[in-house]
C-alpha cells in the first residue's frame, strides 16, 4: 500500500464502506450511485475471485496478475481476507486529486491503514443489520457452512460494539430506501 497521505491535496472525500458480509453493501452502494451519480464515483475492486462469484461488480484477477499489479504499485489500498486478495486501484487517488468524491467497498480490518493513507478525507460508512436478518441473508446465499455463518455473525456483533469515529451509520435491516437516508442527509449537508 502506498503510504503517502493525500488528504492535504484536495477537499474530495473517500467514503469507505464497511459492514459484515451479507449486510447489503453492494445494494446500498448501488442506490447511492443512482441518487448521487453526478457527485460520487463508485470504484470497482480488484479481487482474486471469479467474476461471476457474488453480486459485486468487480475486476477479477488471478493471484499472479494481482501480485504483478501490487508490485508495480497499481493499488492505492490492498488487503487479504476470506482467502482472496482485494485491491482498490490507484485511479481512486487521481479522482480524489481532481476533487471528485469516491466510494469504495472497504475492509473493516484495514480501516486504520486506509485512514493513515487518506487522513481526514476518509469518511467511514458503516452498514449494520439485525443479527436475525443477517443470519437469514447469509443462509439464503448458500456460500458458507453453518459454522462459517456463525463466525460471521460473531464478527458482525464485534463490529457493532466498535465506536468508529466520524462514521456515518446505516441500518440495513429494513427498506433500502430508508437505509441510505442518514447518508443522504450527511451528503446534502456537506455538498459544496
TrEMBL record:
<dbReference type="GO" id="GO:0019634">
    <property type="term" value="P:organic phosphonate metabolic process"/>
</dbReference>
<dbReference type="GO" id="GO:0033863">
    <property type="term" value="F:ribose 1,5-bisphosphate phosphokinase activity"/>
</dbReference>
<feature type="domain" description="Guanylate kinase/L-type calcium channel beta subunit">
    <location>
        <begin position="11"/>
        <end position="188"/>
    </location>
</feature>
<dbReference type="InterPro" id="IPR027417">
    <property type="entry name" value="P-loop_NTPase"/>
</dbReference>
<comment type="similarity">
    <text>Belongs to the ribose 1,5-bisphosphokinase family.</text>
</comment>
<dbReference type="Pfam" id="PF00625">
    <property type="entry name" value="Guanylate_kin"/>
</dbReference>
<comment type="function">
    <text>Catalyzes the phosphorylation of ribose 1,5-bisphosphate to 5-phospho-D-ribosyl alpha-1-diphosphate (PRPP).</text>
</comment>
<keyword id="KW-0067">ATP-binding</keyword>
<dbReference type="GO" id="GO:0006015">
    <property type="term" value="P:5-phosphoribose 1-diphosphate biosynthetic process"/>
</dbReference>
<dbReference type="InterPro" id="IPR012699">
    <property type="entry name" value="PhnN"/>
</dbReference>
<protein>
    <recommendedName>
        <fullName>Ribose 1,5-bisphosphate phosphokinase PhnN</fullName>
        <ecNumber>2.7.4.23</ecNumber>
    </recommendedName>
</protein>
<dbReference type="GO" id="GO:0005524">
    <property type="term" value="F:ATP binding"/>
</dbReference>
<keyword id="KW-0547">Nucleotide-binding</keyword>
<comment type="pathway">
    <text>Metabolic intermediate biosynthesis; 5-phospho-alpha-D-ribose 1-diphosphate biosynthesis; 5-phospho-alpha-D-ribose 1-diphosphate from D-ribose 5-phosphate (route II): step 3/3.</text>
</comment>
<dbReference type="InterPro" id="IPR008145">
    <property type="entry name" value="GK/Ca_channel_bsu"/>
</dbReference>
<keyword id="KW-0808">Transferase</keyword>
<dbReference type="GO" id="GO:0005829">
    <property type="term" value="C:cytosol"/>
</dbReference>
<keyword id="KW-0418">Kinase</keyword>
<feature type="binding site">
    <location>
        <begin position="19"/>
        <end position="26"/>
    </location>
    <ligand>
        <name>ATP</name>
    </ligand>
</feature>
Amino acid at each position: 500500500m502506498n503510504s503517502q497521505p493525500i488528504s492535504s491535496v484536495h477537499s474530495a472525500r473517500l467514503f469507505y464502506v464497511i459492514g459484515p458480509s451479507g449486510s447489503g453493501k453492494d445494494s446500498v452502494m448501488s442506490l447511492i450511485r443512482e441518487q448521487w451519480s453526478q457527485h460520487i464515483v463508485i470504484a470497482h475492486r480488484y479481487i482474486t475471485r471469479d467474476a461471476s462469484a457474488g453480486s459485486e461488480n468487480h475486476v477479477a484477477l488471478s493471484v499472479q496478475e494481482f501480485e504483478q499489479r501490487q508490485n508495480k504499485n497499481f493499488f492505492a489500498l490492498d488487503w487479504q481476507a476470506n482467502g482472496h486478495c482485494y485491491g482498490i486501484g490507484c485511479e481512486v487517488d487521481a479522482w480524489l486529486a481532481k476533487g471528485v468524491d469516491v466510494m469504495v467497498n472497504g475492509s473493516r480490518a484495514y480501516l486504520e491503514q486506509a485512514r493513515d493513507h487518506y487522513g481526514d478525507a476518509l469518511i467511514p460508512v458503516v452498514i449494520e443489520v439485525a443479527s436475525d436478518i443477517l443470519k437469514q441473508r447469509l443462509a439464503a446465499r448458500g456460500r458458507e457452512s453453518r459454522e462459517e455463518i456463525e463466525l460471521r455473525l460473531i464478527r458482525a456483533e464485534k463490529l457493532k460494539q466498535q465506536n468508529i469515529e466520524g462514521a456515518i451509520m446505516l441500518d440495513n435491516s429494513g427498506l433500502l430506501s430508508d437505509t441510505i437516508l442518514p447518508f443522504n442527509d450527511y451528503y446534502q449537508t456537506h455538498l459544496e
